[in-house]
């Protein structure tokens, strides 16, 4: 009952009233608790729409979701001291309405990364549809402005998402929508969490927002992924922001290696790769880099898309192979699609190095990498093998591409494999109609 998904998405004009509506049936509360916590403390007409006194009430429901309404926490003067209060009054009701959602709290004290995500984010299938900015009363910064300044609209046709801004006990719920030139914030209701009435109002609004979030998620592409943290086996931590990626590493040496590679490729204008936009290496802190764009994981769904993806990959590989750089880990997991066009780019140059190399690389998956990479001497032809494997890994049936992958790209004798330049030539000749239209190809 309390998490029942609505049948439709309310219009923006009706949101204020819709969010404040009580449950279809009042929530059952044990009589002793009802009498001690609510009776004589809240207007009866308002109270009876939300709670009802009954002996068969669920103690579990009370403890997990409602007890925080009547328990007033007393923060000190710091923002951190208000977190338990905001957690009880905002997150718990949202979770009641949307139990499958997950939340993150921004714990970064680094200015350059803190500005990339909201103080509070609630994710539904990896999409942040409810966000919050929070400040202690002593902080002069404006959390309402941060709600829009940190937000990039990546939600397609979704009519709106939700937000709140909190200054101490005062919390204002709002919705955010894409305007003609900027993100618009429309305030809905301000609740005073110092008062019981205010905490009950926040409970109603939070629960109703939670119920609506799964329906809003259906209006957004499944591929959207933001504010997700991925822990790799090698100790690397990857944080997906709205339009950039933060990678944190265990050693400054590895970051230095990556910076050198990206600087070299940038100076030669290598296309269809991500770009390094910030590097941070300081003593007593975890080194990190910020890369852009983020893109989405998306395997081609048609032969046309596969041809365009291969063109992007081969164009990039041809260019960095001329610099004697080999990627060594080309697979669909390391290819991203731009969100607004059928173009792909290569990411994750962590394992890249100069070609040739005499050092085996045992951490890679033998099923998706050239066999010689595990035995020692290998060169940039390992990338060609991996491009052939890309073709075989798709669900697209193309005899022409499959045959070329097996007979030219994935040969056991690495010296007989096509080069990136030769493979790109072949692709442009065989699929001239597609590539001339999409890429204005004229050189082949």
From TrEMBL:
MF annotations from Gene Ontology = ATP binding; protein serine/threonine kinase activity
This protein's GO cellular component annotations are:
cytoplasm; nucleus
InterPro entries documented for this protein: Kinase-like_dom_sf (IPR011009), Prot_kinase_dom (IPR000719)
Q: Which GO terms describe its biological process?
A: mitotic DNA damage checkpoint signaling
> Record's superkingdom?
Eukaryota
- Bilayer-spanning residue ranges: none
Enumerate the spans annotated as Protein kinase domain: 156-444
Please state what the protein is called: 15000_t:CDS:1
Supply the source organism for this entry.
Funneliformis geosporum
